[in-house]
């Protein structure tokens, strides 16, 4: 793919002068007091889900975004699609080259369940080209009407099949949770759906990406579990986390999504409790980052401050 020059002033205007704005904002606290303590998330395990900065991927393209992510210190990228209006016709081969050019690693990708159902081999082809070790979905296993014991058992069987197909290609298939997986079955209030999913899927075929924010929302709407306990009991099944923060609120979910480090979720407790330091990848995600004020750097400013906050976690 041709590499047209990117006007640096245009880029900084698009991201609202991130570097200066972030520095002036001073929202990321220094880690000097904790410098002697061990890092809970090593730099090589910090990444970003590109959905977080989808507005910039769309308006500026992968090349410009990858350059900025590398500058901020991110080393891993999780995809949420492989196209950009700013780079019409870009191929996964070209995206792979852009990753390499910027010293980034593609670590995973969110793909819709229907895409796996209709042409899973195509999705696995793309993952192989990008060098992804993991590929999965952020879709809930079933529709709301099918949150039943039978519905989740059928979904688990489907997930096992997807996992087997991925394993045959040397890949690991995973599911990313939201809050509803932690509800109880419509037809059996004694059965938590997430427990059923864990029990019915083969741990060698189906891996899990815990979105920590949505797990705590699940705890709010369907109390009776601790997200940490799931990881401790199934450490090898959680290669990926979404490091997403939330501030307690009176909303139905119990939390509002905020920048990492600006919320009330106790990530120090979370990472300290699960142990296995350095085994898991932590991918910053913030659904509403594109709404971040230009005065503090927009979505890229949020990504910069959040990287710093993850980097500064000490145990």
UniProtKB/TrEMBL annotation:
Keyword Transmembrane helix: no
UniProt xrefs under InterPro entries: IolE/XylAMocC-like, TAT_signal, Xyl_isomerase-like_sf, Xyl_isomerase-like_TIM-brl
Signal sequence coordinates: 1-24
Entry keyword Isomerase: yes
Annotated Xylose isomerase-like TIM barrel domain residues: 66-286
Keywords from the named record: Isomerase, Signal
Molecular function as annotated in GO: isomerase activity
Listed name of the protein: Sugar phosphate isomerase/epimerase
């Amino acid at each position: 793919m041709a590499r047209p020059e990117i006007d640096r002033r245009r880029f900084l205007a698009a991201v609202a002068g991130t570097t200066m704005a972030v520095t002036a904002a001073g929202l990321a606290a220094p880690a000097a007091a904790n410098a002697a303590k061990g890092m809970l998330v090593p730099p090589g395990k910090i990444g970003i889900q590109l959905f977080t900065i989808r507005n910039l991927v769309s308006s500026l393209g992968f090349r410009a975004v990858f350059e900025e992510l590398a500058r901020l210190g991110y080393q891993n990228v999780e995809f949420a699609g492989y196209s950009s209006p700013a780079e019409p016709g870009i191929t996964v081969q070209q995206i792979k080259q852009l990753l390499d050019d910027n010293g980034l690693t593609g670590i995973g990708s969110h793909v819709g369940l229907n895409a796996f159902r209709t042409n899973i081999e195509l999705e696995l082809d793309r993952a192989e080209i990008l060098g992804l070790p993991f590929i999965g979905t952020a879709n809930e296993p079933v529709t709301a009407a099918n949150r039943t014991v039978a519905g989740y058992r059928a979904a688990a069987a489907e997930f096992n099949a997807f996992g087997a197909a991925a394993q045959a290609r040397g890949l690991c298939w995973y599911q990313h949770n939201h809050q509803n997986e932690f509800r109880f079955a419509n037809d059996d209030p004694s059965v938590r759906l997430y427990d059923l999913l864990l029990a019915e899927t083969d741990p060698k075929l189906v891996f899990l990406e815990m979105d920590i924010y949505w797990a705590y929302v699940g705890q709010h709407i369907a109390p009776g579990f601790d997200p940490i306990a799931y990881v401790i009991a199934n450490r090898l099944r959680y290669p990926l986390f979404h490091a997403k923060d939330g501030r307690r609120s009176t909303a139905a979910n119990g939390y509002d999504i905020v920048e990492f480090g600006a919320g009330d979720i106790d990530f120090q407790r979370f990472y300290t409790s699960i142990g296995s330091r350095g085994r898991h990848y932590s991918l910053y995600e913030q659904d509403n980052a594109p709404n971040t004020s230009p005065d503090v750097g927009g979505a890229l400013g949020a990504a910069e401050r959040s990287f710093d906050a993850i980097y500064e976690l000490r145990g």
